[in-house]
């Protein structure tokens, strides 16, 4: 196991959780609907918990936890689209943006799980458990999105 590579993998997950926190905090401030505020708050809390576990793991490995969002900026731009969506577009568009961002987060977690040679069994289990939490948020958002009519 390469400790440096392990820290990189864990930091990529911290970045995606930073993206989620920023995105959902932004979206929550901009929407008025109580159901969306609660759903976004729950997703933010999921990422805060995941991030805390990941930060503790990076520190235990002697690494420095990242404070940034994804280096490619892809997810950051998606969340900026969420802000634009909530300030001038429909509920459906907001939820579509959230679904897209969640799919990117899930992909990042799946990529991390593919790094088995650089993860201990405990780290692998932690990441798998976090993925389940993020998938649960995704499923909730997707259900609400699918029940929301498309604006005509």
Set down the secondary structure blueprint.
Blueprint lengths: L2 H28 L3 H27 L13 H15 L2 H23 L7 H27 L5
Structure description:
The protein is mainly α and 152 residues long. Helix content is 79%, strand content 0%. It is built from five helices and no strands. α1 packs parallel to α3, α1 packs antiparallel against α4 and α2 packs antiparallel against α5. The longest helix is centred in the N-terminal third of the chain and has 28 residues. The model has no long low-confidence stretch (mean pLDDT 87).
Structural class, by secondary structure, is mainly alpha
Order of helices and strands: HHHHH
**Helical stretch count?**
5
Q: What is the average of the pLDDT values?
A: 87
The shape, in one word, is: elongated
What does the main sheet amount to?
Answer: none
Number of beta strands: 0
Assign a percent range to the helix content.
over 70%
Based on CA atoms alone, the radius of gyration comes out at 16 Å
End-to-end separation in angstroms reads 54 Å
Given as residue ranges, the uncertain stretches (5+ residues, pLDDT < 50) are: none
Q: Classify the beta-strand content into a percent band.
A: under 5%
